[in-house]
Each structure stands twice: as C-alpha cells, then as structure tokens.
Amino acid sequence: MLNETICQQSYFVQGCEDAESSEIRFRLCQELWDEIKTDTEVLQDELNRTILDSLLDFTRKCSSTRQNSDWTSQMRASEIPTAALMLGVNVPDHDMTFQSLSDMLKQSVSPHVASVQAKECGALKHLMKKVLERLMDTVVVVDDEDEEENVETSPRVHRSMHCSLGILCDWYTARTKKSPTGTPGKKRSSQVRDEQQQPPVVIIFKDLEAFNPRVLQDFILICSQYIDRLPLTFIFGIATSPSTIQHMLPHSVSSLLCIELFQSLSCTQHLATVIDKLILASRIHFKLNGKVMQVLIGVFLYHDFSVRNFIKGLQLALLEHFHSQPLSVLCCKKKQALFNVTQLSKPNLDRIRQLPSFKRYVEKQEAQEQVNLMTDDSHLKEVCQQLIKDLHKYHKNYYPILRCLHTLTSSLPRYPLGKQIRELYLICLAKNVWENEDYQSAMKLVKMLAKGEMVSLLQKCVEILQLSKSKKMKNALVQLEELLAKFKQLDTSIPSPIKNLQKKTDLFQLQKTLLEMNESRRAKRLSPFENLRNEALEFIDNLVKSHLSPPESQPLYEVCYYSSSATVRRHLNATPRTSIQAALSNPYYYLQNDSLKSEDGTVSNTAPDICIAYKLHLECGRLINLYDWLEAYSTVVSAAEGNDQDSENFGKVDEVKHARFIRAVSALEFLGFIKSTKQKTDHVARLTWGGC
Amino acid sequence: MTALLQHPGYDEERLKGVAEKLPCREVQAGMLLSLMGQLSHATVSCVECVSIALLFEQVLLSFFGCDAASLLPRSPSLSDFVRVYRQQCSQSPAKQTRYIVMEKAELLRDTDASLLSALLRLQELVEDNVTVILLSEIAWDKFRPNTGCFEPLLLHFPDYSKSELQQILSQNVHPSYSAGFYSAYINILLGVFYSVCRDLRELRHLAALNFSKFCEPLAEGKVKETDTHKLWKHIEPHLKKAMQTVYLREVSSLQWEQMQQMEEEEAGALRGLSAHTHVELPYYSKFLLIAAYLASYNPARTDKRFFLKHHGKIRKTNFLKKNEKTSNHLLGPKPFPLDRLLAIFYSVVDSRVAPTASIFSQISSLVTLQLLAQVSHDDQLDAPKYKCAVSLDFICAIARTVNFDIVKYLYDFL
C-alpha cells in the first residue's frame, strides 16, 4: 500500500511543473480524491439502501411462506423467489451496485452469496462450477476456524467439481447444522435466529440479457428440483426492461419463479445527487469550470449514462489540475491555504502576477498599490491571503443562492433556466446569469406566480438558507423571513372594493365607483400582494447579482478551477480515427522531429514511408493503380535521398524501395484505408472519401 | 381398480398405496408392473448431468455404492463406464433386473451421438440384466439417433382428461371444507383454465392461490356452500384476471395474494412485468438504434431516396422489385453492415458527431443489451453485420423522445 503511494508519487512528480511544491500538491490531490471517493461510496450505499431493504423484505416473506405448514403453503408449488432488479442501461455502474449489494447481503442476510456474469458462463457446467466455487470458497476464506478442515476437504471437492447441486445441498445442510453454536454472544429474537439457521443462498446474475437463454433455463430447472432442500434466491440484474425475462424464459421455466420487480434509482437521478454532493459543495475546494463540466455532462448524456465514468472524469481533472497548475498548492482548506501562501516561492509569486484574474484585479487598484503588488513580495502575500479568504467566502455564498434560484425557477412552465440544477449551474458558470435572456423571462414568469406557490417556494428557500453558516446568508435569511411574514399577514388586511360596493345602492354612486375602479385598473395600481411580490423578487434579484457572478470574476479563481476542457475531452472521448489521420498527414505532431515540420498540410518527403503512401493515395480516385502509386512513391523517396533530379537512376524502382512500398501499403490495408478488389487485380479500392 | 395392480413380489397394501398416489394411471402402472416386477433402480435427471461423467457416476453410485463411482477416471469415456460396470457387477451379480431411469431423455440427443445408441444396448455391453428406461415429453421419433439404433419399447402416457384432472385435484380437500364444496371449486377452476393449462402442478398452484377468494362470500355469510351459481358469479371474473396476470407470471404469486387482501383501486395500481417497456438510452444510442432500425427495414437501394437531399423524384412503384412488394415489417429485420449503419446514423443525427471510440462502444453495448443482434460471427472484425431486434412500437417511442419522425423514413409507410 505504502509502496504503491510512493510509486504513484514519483510518477506524479515526474514531468510535473514546479517540482518543489509537487510533493505537497500530490498530498493535497490524494486527500481530496480520498474524500471524494469515500463520499461517493457512502452515497452509493445510501442510494442502494432502499432497494436492499425491500429486497430483504421480499426474501423474508418468501422464506416464511416456504416454512409454513398450512394447507395453502403445502398446495402451492414451491417457486424460487426471484428479484428482478432494474438497473438501467448504464452497465459500467452496475459493478459498483452489485459489489455493495452483495456486501450488504453478506452482512445482514446470509453469508452465502454468489454473483455470476454471463461472459464466464458460456455453458451450463461453467455456470454450475462458478456458482459452487463461489459459494463454497467464500466460506473457506471467511471462516477462520474451519480453514484447516476445508483445506483437507477441498481437494476432494475440487476433484468432483463437475458435481451437481446435490453436493451444494449436502454442504449447505452440514453448514447450517453447525452454525447455531457459532454466535452465542449476540442477542437475537427467536424469529431472526430461525432465519439465521436457514439463511437463503443468493445467486446474483449480474447481466441477465447477456446470458445464453438455454443455459439459464436448464439452470433454473435444476435449481427448482432442489428448492425444498436448498433455500435459493435469485437476483436478476436487468439493464433494459423486465419483459426481457419473458423473452428469455418460456412459460414452463418462468412458472418456477416467483418474480418481483425492484426499480433502482435512475442514472440521471443518481448523477443529480452526485453533482449535488460533490460539485455543488463548498467543502470540496477543487472546482471545474463551465466547459469542463459541459464535457463531462455531455459524455454522460450523449454516450454512456455512467456515473462511474463521470467520477472518473472528475478524478482525471483533479489529477491534471494538481499536476499542471503549480498554484494548486492553494487549493485546499482555508487554514492550510493561508499557510501555503506564506510559503510561496519567488517563481510562484510571479506566476500569481501573471494570472489573468489577478491582472484584472491589479488594474482596478490605485497606482501606488499597483506598484506595490508587482514589486513587493510580502505585500503580495498579504493580499493573496485576503483574496483566498474572499474566494472561500464567495463559494460559501454561491451554492445556497444557486439552490434558491433553482427552487424558484425549476417548476416554471417550459423551464427557462432548466429543470435540473446542473443546467442552471452551467448557465451561471458561463457568464453573468442576470444578463441572460432566459433569466429575465424566468423572472417574468415568477412574477405571475399565485400567492400560495410563491409562499411555498420562498419557504423552501428559507430552508436552504438555514443550512448555511456564512454571515451574509444569515442576513439574507432574516430578510427573507420578514418578507414571508408579510406575505402571511396579507390574508387579514386586504380590503375588498367589492364589499364597499355592496353598501352603496345609489345608481349614480355605483357608476362612479365602477368608473374609478376601471381607472385604477388602467393605471395599474398594484395590490399589496403584487407590491410585496415585486419586493421579494427584487430581493432575490439582488442576491443573485451580488453572489452569482461567474468564477472568472474572482481574483485567483485559477487556483481552484480546472479549465482545460480539451484535455479532458481527449482523454475521455478518444477519437482513434482522427488520431490516425493526424499521425499520417502530420507526422511531426507525434514524432516531434524538426525535419518533419511542414506548412499547410503538405508532407515533407523525409516522412515515414506510410505517410508518403497515405498522402499519395489521397490524390487518387476510388480505385488506385498499384504500379502508378509505386512510381509516384519512388519519385518522392528519391528526392528525399537527395539524388540528382537529372541523373538516370532518379525515381527508378529498386528492390529496397519496392519492399518499403509494399510494407507501407499493407500497413494502410491493415488500418482500413484500402482493400484489395476483385474488379481489377492490379488495383486496390479506397475505403475513405475525399483528400486532395 | 386396484385389481389391475397385482404382483407376487409386492404385498397388497403397498400396491394399494401406490395406486392412491397415481390416480388415473392405473392402466399404465399395471402394464409396467406386469413387465418389470420388482425394481432395483437408478434415477438420473438428464438436465442435471452437465457432463456424461456425472451421469456415469450417478448410475454407479446408486447400483454399487460410492467406491465404485470413485473408480472412474477424471473424464471417463463410455468404455470406462462399461469396464467399471462389468468389474462391479461380476463382484455383486444381479439377483434381479436393474433399471436405469433417465428423466428428460430428449436432452441426450445433444450429447455425444453414440451415447444414446449405446445406452439402448447397454445390456449387451455390460452383460448384465439391466434395462434403461427413457422418460421424455416429446415423441421418440424426434430424438431417435439418425445413425440407427436398437428400438426401445414405447409406452404412451396420454394427457389427463378434464374429468381425470377434476378427480385428481379434488383429492386435496381443504381440511375445513367439505369435499363436495371443494370439488365444485375445482370444477369452476377447470372451466376457466382447462383451455390454456393442463399442467397438474400449475393447476394445483392456482387452486391454492385462489381458494381463499372463493371462500370469501361464505365467510361473510352471504351464501351457502351449496349455492354454486352465486359462488361461480363471485369467483369467475377473479379467475379470469388471474389467467392474465399470475398465471403468466406478470405478477408474482406473493403479490397476487397481497392483491386479494387489498381494495380494488389499490390493486389496480400494480403493474405487470410487461407493462414496463420503457428503456432510457443515451442520446446517441437512441439515434444509433433508429439508424439500425431503418437499415434493417428499408431496402439498401432506397437509402438514396431518404438520405440524399437531391434524390430526384422516385416513385415507389418504379423501384418496387417483386419480392419487395410484401411489407418489410412482415418479413422481419434484415442484416446490414456496420458502415451502412454509420452512414445512416450520421445523416439522421442532427449535429456533427466525431467518430469517437464511444460511438463504437455504444454499438456493442446495444448488442449486449439485445437491442441489436450481431449476425456475423464474433471473430469477423472486418465489416461486422447486425440486425435490429426491437419492435416498431419500441422504436417509435424512442424516436418520439428525440423528436424524430421515423415513420417518414420507413419505406413500408411511404
């Protein structure tokens, strides 16, 4: 473990900007990542908790009907309880879910849990073998006392490993007979102990769709013959829809199962919680800028729906940030950051002076102060400390206000500022949100809210602000509560003009009042409620304007924000074809050899053979004559060798050139740019379009 | 009836007991008994025998004990089995016929071809008084080895008739009700289910699940046990519902029992398995699936018509070939190569998409999700072929979520 960290560290330090501070940065990065990792794991467990609880409930109910001896239970065919777990198409995430699920099952239900994957179970015997191995081997590992005994018996077990479920049955009976004496210290109710004596044997099929239906059917048939002796429970992991079960299993088999459906949280909701806990949190100081967020969310929505990959992307950005940005030493908890400011080296101070955000800050200062900042290091350090403090305050206020704005706008018709908070966050990261047209139309819509809605939304905002500890938020909270109180008072104090009307019976008077009313409506005299609503809106608007300015406006924001979206995209969304084409048409990009430098898309004639062949083939049509191609190639290569253009041998094909050419052509064929064609034997067909 | 079952080797009482356990099979049982006499037997389920080694082992184990079974080598062949069998039976010769009963024998045709023929002549091979009994649900003709073999004696067990089923099911009377009442219940149950299900196990299961509902009016004191018509009126709609739900395993038997205790409206909220058909997919996966559907159901020649801007006016009748006159949807999906899929994908998706690795990996995820099917062999890396495996309803629902009017692009609906 320790070795591993050291190894990682040396890898991190290697080629790192500003090697001096790299150790600290590595440590900070490691700490942050550990925090994020544990957070995601806790989150995962919380999300799985509800499914697991209902699953446990289900297995319990099944086993209780099994053990009953009344008429109905005897008459009923004993079905294998089966939980169909709907997980969604984000297959990469399932491993995580199943891991925590099987851990939890082992902890709280039964030590006998085996998970199998389709790719390891091509035939029935493999499936059988895996199930037996996993069930019986886990016991060997878990139980210290039985270890010796099991080591002795295991050769026998392995010798007859092709054995049937009968072996498992015997093993199970032996285990359950032994166990009651095993846990004397723990107090349990008698019902729980009963369960403990007959813990179910859980088999998890991780990816049901990928299983061979025949194998699955046979396996279920066999299991159903042992269900009386072996309390089996199945869990089917399903990525698409439950009707898959009916597609895969005929009625004769599905009638052996007692299938119940369990819906796991959808991946978009999962992502929303992850973003809520990890991104929109001021306690994690590492941040992504708008473009990087956009890339990560884009990969999620357009490509894989995988939360795990999203977190991997976050990890990549984290590593890149600490690796490439020397000033990331300041991206940590406030106390530590303030200390790190005092330790900044001369080159790092210069780096601060070079930061665009800092330059903007300097320009706003008076002339004398500007000079001080650019020349006096100790003064700079003091200012930096203040700026870091401000940055932390900015984050503390930013997220509560963002959430408030989201609560107000997320239920508006046609969602001008997005349905999900991530959409609003992206808008706010990009530029001043209040200058956005959508923001203005959203505010107009908020102005039309009825009183009840308005009050309940403001109430929610109050709840959000209550969670925040910063001074400004507490002030805002007080003001908001006052506003709410006023809203509530309105009920009692509205004087109704209609009531006054009823008192007056005089026709002339009536006409007069009606006219007055009409006039007042035309002049848009606002009712007290409308006044109050406008006041509330103005209050919110002011909060937004003072706290939701984009991070770029904050001096030193570069310390916390990672902004290289191109790097992230390149790593997460690989484009093999474009890289190959780049390598072939511009070899300098990868080889970094000065002799290969060339302008405007031409390939120098000293480039590798395959690049020359590639360049030449771009100039051809759909069919390429191999001999012409060879001649052209030979001419280019001769020029590169510096042969005299007028000499007799110039451009002549010799054996070496011929061989080099053939090698280049077959490499191109391997890469899929050309293929041989039956139409003409001395021609090859191009498989790509365009070129010259 | 017990008169049919008579054998000097067994005492009267035991035969009577067997006869009670096997109602309505007196004829067949009597026949078997007269053929075989007393049995020493090994029962082997062929589903369970994942390898022939297991089959041999089980036979030897039940005839000669576990010592004999351990004499088999690691992956035994048929001749190993015969050798061990001969050796063992010379030590403990048979006093009477030994029987090997193979359940689900039709599965033997999937194993080594010679195994079934060899088993049929096992008596000659091992020179012992041994008989093999094959039990199967399908006709012998369907799994007779095509190399020819020793023909077994066939004994046909006909399906239970309705009255036989009635007789058998009526035996499991609920202890707190009279036999006549229960028999009336079974009669009603069979009236509903006999047309779809003859499986005794399943019928018994259904009888158990619905009996409490049948007794409901009785417990409330509304009707008497003898008032069959009223009871029928009460239970019939309930059984019809059961046929559409719990019988098809749309809802589990546990849920069904809970539903009976709930109020009508609450129970209506519970949706069956096939009601959940909605599948949420990433944006590009949706378009890949749409492209695959178009590629599978449109003839390749018509791609120009749908995806080129200036395709000219081609009327449908002009390029109809004879075989294309039938609806492509009736013929089912056709295979298409990867590059056609991608070409259609790039023309239907509304933004520029870089050909990234994740686009390709989405295609293979669609295959593992069984929304696409790979037609060519896994090993064929060059130009793999696929088929689209989703229904029209499914693809329409997908297309609607991305505002793509798929019907306009389908040749069948032109």
Description:
The complex is a heterodimer of chains A (692) and B (414). Chain A is built from 32 helices and ten strands. Chain A has a five-stranded parallel sheet with strand order 2-3-4-1-5, sandwiched between helices. Chain A has a three-stranded antiparallel sheet with strand order 8-10-9. A two-stranded parallel ribbon of chain A has the order 6-7. The radius of gyration of chain A is 36 Å and the shape is extended. Chain A folds into three domains: 12-140 and 198-265, Rossmann fold (3-Layer(aba) Sandwich), CATH 3.40.50; 270-490 and 527-562, no CATH class; 576-686, no CATH class. In chain A, 64% of the residues lie in helices and 6% in strands. With 692 residues, chain A is α/β, with parallel strands linked by helices. Chain B is mostly helical. Chain B folds into three domains: 38-142, Rossmann fold; 162-263, no CATH class; 283-307 and 328-409, Arc Repressor Mutant, subunit A. Chain B has 19 helices and six strands. In chain B, the strands form two sheets. Chain B has a three-stranded parallel sheet. Chain B has a three-stranded antiparallel sheet with strand order 4-6-5. The model of chain B has no long low-confidence stretch (mean pLDDT 82). The interface between A and B is large, with 65 and 52 residues.
Main beta sheet strand tally, sense and closure of chain B:
3 strands, parallel
Strand order of the largest sheet of chain B: 1-2-3
Helix content of chain B: 40-55%
Number of helices of chain B: 19
The total beta strand count of chain A reads 10
Mean pLDDT of chain A: 83
Number of domains of chain B: 3
Contiguous low-pLDDT stretches of chain B (5 residues minimum) are: none
Number of helices of chain A: 32
Gross morphology of chain B is flat
| Quaternary structure | heterodimer
Count of domains of chain A: 3
- Determine the fraction of residues in helical runs of chain A and give it as a percent range: 55-70%
- What is the name of the CATH topology of the largest domain in chain B? Arc Repressor Mutant, subunit A
Unreliable stretches of chain A, pLDDT < 50, 5 or more residues?
Answer: 138-161, 181-195
Task: Name the largest protein-protein interface in this structure.
Answer: A-B, 65 and 52 residues
Classify the beta-strand content of chain A into a percent band.
5-15%
Computed over alpha carbons, the radius of gyration of chain B is 31 Å
Structural class of chain B: mainly alpha
Write down how many β-strands of chain B occur, each being a DSSP E stretch of 2 or more residues: 6
